[in-house]
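Lab notebook, bench 4. The sequencing result for the construct came back, and we need a structural model before the next group meeting so we can plan mutations. Quick request posted to the team channel:

Model the 3D structure of this chain.
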Amino acid sequence: MDKVAGLSARQRSELFEESASLRNLQTAIIEKDFWVCWLLKKLFNARELKGKMVFKGGTSLSKVHGLIERFSEDIDLVLAWGLIGYGEEGVDPWQEMPSANQQNRFNATFNEKAAKYIRETLCPLVEKITSSVDGIECVIPDDPHVIEVHYPAAFGSTAFMPEVKLEIGPLASWVPQGNHIVRPYAAEDFPQVFDDPDCPVVAITAERTFWEKATILHQQAHRAEDKPMPSRYSRHYYDLFQMTSSNVATNAIADLSLLDDVVKFKQRFYRSPWASYETAKPGSFRLMPTAAGDLVLRKDYNAMRPMFFSDPPTWGDIIAGLHVLENQINTIAKDKAE
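Done. Here's the predicted structure in token form:
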């Protein structure tokens, strides 16, 4: 992909415009998708990160599993805990802490060490492996667990910033995972332009992501009205709805041990006094938002329309489908648990 990355802005613009025309998408989406894949390839080919990184989140649902029809512009990565010293120090992050306060202190220290690693080691490494292309700039914003990789845009766009966000979460599970190949949309449309468009990645399975998303919805169902919901959270509802039409939902519901693992992980590392993770189980699982939450999410979903590749399902269809899924989890899965 370095061949295309090294083309002039005019040449890249022509390529991305042709691909966008074929797919009836905004040209900025095709361009950003290229840089997402280019960056993934750089990261997974980096000797320093071999076997120490896993791809997860919404972009993996789109690029790896082909389950969603929306553009996800960030790269969610899980880093090996040994990279920030825990393996070397002999500390087991999975070891249960005697109290909630001790767990909170551990989590805070862990995140501080992760931020230090990202700032002092990972960001300079990303700068190094992307230095072959002029115009690439790596910046750590206010969030110390994010690296913004600014790329040389071939044209301006008000909807899409010319940057790819690496969202790095060491406090995340590595398993289950699998090996996959991703490639840019432009390479699928014009393979003759690319020398080596394939990007091997290691990604979390869609079944685990299913339960990750489902527990996010369960958490939101218990959100107090005085706690504002983050923007673009409607994407989680869309993503989970999309998975209901595949075998992923069936496989995930059949694997309650995976749900149990996700819940225990969140209870330990992402503690919340109001999330009610202890009720995220068959018989009491909630996917439906509150009435107030539904109004916020509906507006948020409508604002996300430019991110979809085709006409997305209506918000009403999503809620109806998730209501069916909620019943499945609480009945079929409950019977299985018994």
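The first helix runs from residue 2 to 5.
Will bring this to the meeting.
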